[in-house]
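Following up on my earlier thread - several people asked me to post the actual chain instead of describing it. Fair enough. Here it is, all 166 residues.
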Amino acid sequence: MAEKLALASTIIPNRSRMLLTPTVQLAISDEDILACHPVMHELRPHIDEEGFVSRVRAQAQVNDFQLAYLQDQDLIVAVAGFRIGYNLAWGHYLYVDDLVTRATHRSQGFGAILLEWLHDFAQKAGCDQLHLDSGLQRKGAHQFYERHGMPNTSLHFASAIKPNSA
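Reply from S.P.:
Thanks for posting it. Predicted structure:
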């Protein structure tokens, strides 16, 4: 299993809307993970609150999945689920499974802060690349990624083995 990095909260310059400096933290406890559910639910509505912690814990067991969140004052406003891996195509990489900002807080810089934190985490972990997939319908997200130096480099193909197994 890859060693998990314990990174301190990210300090960023104050922005006009942000009264306090938002921080990025890893969700370690069940309480932290559960607190991320309302934001993650906006991206993954099929995952109910009751099963969220167990799903995150199962992914952590299988592939070292981690959950990072950005908190502005006392509110979690953005969440990212990610893992570090190694394969023939990309070498040592960080893969972002989930990246979502609370709908009421989009276009305020929170997603950019979290994405920058993920890049820093990947670099500190010795990764060569950062990758993510995004649904074809998420045009706004695609523009966001491209603005932040992530061009569209491939298509992702999928085939369901078990229906409704997500």
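The chain has one domain: 23-147. That should answer part of your original question.
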